[in-house]
Amino acid sequence: MAFILLAASTAQMTLVEAWNYGGWMMWVLAGMSVIGAAFCLYFLGTLRERVVVPHRLRRDLPSYLLQEDVMEARRLCEDTPSPLSAVMIATLDAVRNAPKASAELISKVAESEGARQSDMIQGQTQWLLEIATIAPMVGLLGTVIGMLSAFGAVASDVAAAKPTLLAAGVSQAIITTIFGLMVAIPAMMMYAFFRRRAAKLVATLESSCAELVAVLSSKHAQD
Question: Using CB atoms within 10 A as the burial measure, which of 2, 68, 90, 216 is most buried?
Answer without folding.
Answer: 216
